[in-house]
Amino acid sequence: MTTTSAPTRAHAAVPASAGISAVLLSVLGLLSAIAPFATDLYLPAFPRMAQDFGTGATAVQLTLTAFLVGVTVGQLVFGPISDRFGRRPPLIAGSVLMVVAGVATVVAPSAGVLIAARLAQGLGGAAGMVIGRAVISDLATGRAAARAFSLMMIVGGVAPVVAPVAGGLLVDPIGWRGILAVVLALSVVMLIAVLVVVRETYPAERRLVHRAERAATGSPLRALRSRAFIGYTVTFTFAFGAMMAYISASPFVYQDMMGLGATGYGLAFGVNALGLVVVSGASARLAATRDVRGPLTVGIATLLASTLVLAALVGSGVGAGWLAIPLFVAVSSLGLVLGNATALALGAVPAAAGAASAVLGAAQFGLAALVSPLVSIGGGATAAPLALVMVACAVVAAATLAFTARRTR
């Protein structure tokens, strides 16, 4: 009884005029896309960076690792802070930090300075990601929230495709410092957009109500023990893990095994991303008229079936080209999963949306960091590790969703 009444009281405090405008959703989409751009845009410049710094590939790779560590830790920091002080102040602080760190990356005199600057840049960028989700949770629940998260997934699906291609085109004319200057420019745009568009969605009066509710439970994080929150978070995390396994292994599968060149690989990767974008758009439309649990269930079932087909094809030894079909279906199916699972997870704990968003994001990137190395165990000779990892992630996601649906019905 307490679990179902808390969300009602919480959202009753939201002004009747509250909503998510197209402009606000675009800004939140930019906040969610800044990390993919900041990670993928400069990847083609790695060899030149190592040459300029007179160092090995490991030191340059650490600039990426540092950024991802910053993103993970930053979400755990900024999420709870936004529950205590509101969304806008820490969002502005994180945006400013990303701009300052961006300046340091452009003028970094050594690989060590660049690594430190990228760590700070990741910390700042995390604020936009974690608080952006919390802002949606403040303004919408249920179908409206699922629609907003699905639309944000469209931006998230385009960014990883556009960034490496753009980086490859820019590395020769402007160099790696120029590419990092582009990331800096995007950070400045992000800061301006936050200052102009994003208003406080978690005012003091709502924070006081939620603080009293959390105090009554005896622990400020007790809300995160919700079965629904844990279940949908695990479903989201392992579904995203399947996508990260695909992204990490895709160069080996499409280029080494299928024999595609760089252009062919980019086209294949783009087709799969387009499938994700199209299905995410369809999911947003479905959210206007249907219970989001239905599309989520269909998405998870499709993900499981396509990964099992992928494993069967790998085991049968058929030509590598056939693997493109289940991979396309698996990636596309995530358009029904990621936005809806996020909406259900955060909607289960409105009194701690910031902390919940932080846990969701940290789990997402934490599992991604674990599965990415596993798929390359076999090198470019076999897709078996990819198939096994994707099946394992899909099985965990499906089992967790089934258990959560049964226990929270």
Averaged pLDDT? 83
CATH superfamily of the largest domain: MFS general substrate transporter like domains
The CATH topology of the largest domain turns out to be Growth Hormone, Chain: A
Largest sheet: none
In DSSP terms (H or I, runs of 4 or more residues), the helix count works out at 15
| Number of E strands | 0
Distance between the termini: 13 Å
Q: How many structural units, i.e. domains?
A: 2
CATH C-level name of the largest domain? Mainly Alpha
Tell me the CATH architecture of the largest domain: Up-down Bundle
**H and E order:** HHHHHHHHHHHHHHH
**Helical coverage, percent range:** over 70%
Structural category is mainly alpha
For the CA atoms, what is the radius of gyration? 21 Å
Low-confidence region ranges: 1-18
What can you tell me about this protein's structure?
The chain has 409 residues and is mainly alpha-helical. The protein has 15 helices and no strands. It folds into two domains: 20-206, Growth Hormone, Chain: A (Up-down Bundle), CATH 1.20.1250; 226-409, Growth Hormone, Chain: A. The protein has helices at residues 2-12, 22-40, 46-53, 57-85, 88-107, 111-139, 142-197, 204-217, 227-257, 262-286, 293-316, 324-333, 338-347, 353-374, 384-408. The longest helix is centred in the middle third of the chain and has 56 residues, at 142-197. The radius of gyration is 21 Å and the shape is globular. The model is unreliable at 1-18 (pLDDT under 50).
